[in-house]
């Protein structure tokens, strides 16, 4: 029975990664429709927050000011700082650079967790699987294009995004032992939305509301707000608690694989043999890292 429950959480982790990988395509559709990156992020978080507020509104403040501050940090690291840094980096640097840096954060999480949480340190087999998965992720992101150029500001912002997600992964784990998942997720949406409002007015508050008359735009927005944000964060916070921060974060390596598959299907982009080899390495590495040794 215990193994069946753990398998369920691993399955939900994979499902969340599939949703988050597909969200890159939905975001690109909204950007092409005239939305700014900050507008896309704020609208999807606000929608998720309002829905979650209707489902869970009995408790507004944490048990003490320290936990409230930690929840605010979660909103910053998993919300406004992460998305604003990543989206800005995409505008200043190359997509391959940003993807490689941001999606390498499981390595940062593995190192940081090993330092602060001795009970979650990986063994040699899991470390080997993680490194194989990392190599596969690099091949998928490059997709046969081995020309990488340095863009200092953009690459630095991508590195900031990877670091703040690592901080979020470390903070939310102990909070999940004291507060319900719905409550933590609602606070993340609240503080993530609140702290992004100044950036919205600084970059452009004129939201193209008429674009929502297009069913494709409305559908992608609902997907980002309800599925990618509301469903994704609720499930992911629970997954971190159930299977551990390091093993759960190892699934993040598969985000570029899902993104490129969705791009091939919906945007008709090209996938090379190098990316296919990378996909095989990702799957092999994840199986090696996630499967317990008997």
UniProtKB/TrEMBL annotation:
This is Drug/metabolite transporter (DMT)-like permease. Signal peptide: none annotated. Residues 8-141, 154-288 form the EamA domain. It comes from Hallerella porci. The keyword tRNA-binding does not apply. It is a multi-pass membrane protein. InterPro entries: AA-Vitamin_Transporters (IPR050638), EamA_dom (IPR000620), EmrE-like (IPR037185). Keywords: Cell membrane, Membrane, Transmembrane, Transmembrane helix. SUPFAM superfamilies: Multidrug resistance efflux transporter EmrE. PANTHER family: INNER MEMBRANE TRANSPORTER (PTHR32322), S-ADENOSYLMETHIONINE_S-ADENOSYLHOMOCYSTEINE TRANSPORTER (PTHR32322:SF18). It holds the Pfam family EamA. It is found in: Cell membrane. Its main location: membrane. The keyword NAD does not apply. The chain crosses the membrane at residues 40-57, 69-85, 97-119, 131-150, 156-176, 188-209, 215-236, 248-267, 273-289.
